């Protein structure tokens, strides 16, 4: 499972011109679900989203506060394209979980996030829809987290292999 976290001043999702969800300051998070993901991957990503320190404290010291600490909002958007590979110039999505299975998995993920935080602070897009996502990035800050079972996979068709997550358990303890 993969989360692409964007620190935002505000964000919204529309479908066919209709507003689906919107948030003020917090994080817009694109969620990729791998075809091998389990509940353990989900738990890991939820824990990381809620504990990583990506915001300034009251003294403007950077990287001190989490979404939970600041009581900010979260907007999640399911995005199967995060698990792409390349076949020449064409993207291939065989590593992404299939639509039916991933819809159920994603809904459980959203519910887990709401249960572990504050349900009213967690919003999401419209699963499987052609969405327009608008954000006002704050920083800009964009970070990627991937569940441990996928860290050793080749995640890009570039010379960079075996990339690691940007945040690990030791980072949370600091």
TrEMBL record:
One of its GO terms (cellular component) is cytoplasm. Residues 144-174 are annotated as: Disordered. Gene3D superfamilies: D-tyrosyl-tRNA(Tyr) deacylase. GO terms for molecular function: D-tyrosyl-tRNA(Tyr) deacylase activity; tRNA binding. Keywords: Cytoplasm, Hydrolase, RNA-binding, tRNA-binding. The keyword Cytoplasm applies. Its main location: cytoplasm. It is found in: Cytoplasm. Its EC number is 3.1.1.96. It catalyses: glycyl-tRNA(Ala) + H2O = tRNA(Ala) + glycine + H(+); a D-aminoacyl-tRNA + H2O = a tRNA + a D-alpha-amino acid + H(+). Belongs to the DTD family. NCBIfam families: D-aminoacyl-tRNA deacylase. This is D-aminoacyl-tRNA deacylase. It comes from Parnassius mnemosyne (clouded apollo). The lineage of its organism: Eukaryota, Metazoa, Ecdysozoa, Arthropoda, Hexapoda.
């Amino acid at each position: 499972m993969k989360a692409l976290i964007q620190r935002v001043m505000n964000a919204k999702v529309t479908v066919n011109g209709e507003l689906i969800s919107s948030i003020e300051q917090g994080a817009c998070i694109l969620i990729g679900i791998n075809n091998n993901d389990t509940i353990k991957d989900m738990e890991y990503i939820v824990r990381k989203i809620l504990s990583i320190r990506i915001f300034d404290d009251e003294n403007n010291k950077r990287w001190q506060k989490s979404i939970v600490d600041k009581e900010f909002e979260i907007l999640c958007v399911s995005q199967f394209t995060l698990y792409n590979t390349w076949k020449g110039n064409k993207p291939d999505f065989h590593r992404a979980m299939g639509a039916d299975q991933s819809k159920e998995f994603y809904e459980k993920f959203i519910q887990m996030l709401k249960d572990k935080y504050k349900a009213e602070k967690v919003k999401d897009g419209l699963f499987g829809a052609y969405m327009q996502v608008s954000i006002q990035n704050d920083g800009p800050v964009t970070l990627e987290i991937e569940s441990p079972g996928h860290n050793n996979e080749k995640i890009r068709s570039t010379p960079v292999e075996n990339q690691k997550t940007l945040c690990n358990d030791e980072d949370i303890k600091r």
